Amino acid sequence: VSQSRYALEELLGKDFSILGSGYPSKQFFLRIWRTLNSGEIWHGEICNRSKESNSFWVDTTIFPVKDETGHLKKHVIVCFDITDKKQSLEELELANKNAIHAANVKAEFLTNMSHEIRTPMNAILGFNGVLRRELADRPQEVEVVDHIRRSTDHLLQVVNDIRTANIRFSRAST
After folding, report:
1. Residue 152 pairs with which residues in a beta bridge?
2. Average per-residue pLDDT for the chain
3. What is the pLDDT of residue 83?
């Protein structure tokens, strides 16, 4: 009653379609009526509309009440407001979707950067080999060239480690 903004007297004895939000579909409500008309209890979540046309969600149980001859006499409806729960779930779903998107953007960025760094590093390694052969008879220069080679190998290993971690992360998040 509180979320609907209707007074209890305005709802008692009325068809609960007064709270209809248009969601879920008419077929959904037809299934509810079939369940109730067969004498079974129905339980589920329904989006309703308040007197001021604001949507709110309720966890609803509807009990069919029969008269002494077994004919359906009325229904008793028990509702609990779950609007906050539904909004929290929607926010979590959105946050999850955004996190997955951010992870995909990060993975794509790391893949591109790995490639962009790897290409010039391979060129440096290639030229380093040529330079080492040219300077083979000059030990001091060979030492500098070897230092460049070790540094380049180390940097390439860092790029490979980032790439490998990125691949593992991408597989784990899918």
Report:
1. none
2. 86
3. 93
Tokens of 136: 């083979």
CA-to-CA distance for 58 and 3, rounded, in angstroms? 9
Cα separations (Å) of 154 from 3, 121, 147, 164?
A: 64, 11, 11, 15
Round to whole Å and give the CA distance between 125 and 129.
6
Runs of H (alpha helix) within 26-138: 26-37, 83-134
Rounded Cα–Cα distance for residues 151 and 164 (Å): 20
C-alpha–C-alpha distance, residues 104 and 52, integer Å: 42
The rounded distance, in Å, linking the Cα atoms of 41 and 30 is: 14
pLDDT of 124-162, one tens digit each?
999 999 999 999 899 999 999 999 999 999 998 888 888
- Reported as a pLDDT band with limits 50, 70 and 90, residue 16 is low
Residue 18 corresponds to which amino acid? Answer: I
CB 10 within 8 A of CB 4: no
Tell whether omega for the bond before 24 is within 30 degrees of 0, i.e. cis: yes
Beta bridge partners of 39: none
- What do you get for the CA distance between the two ends of the chain, in Å? 43
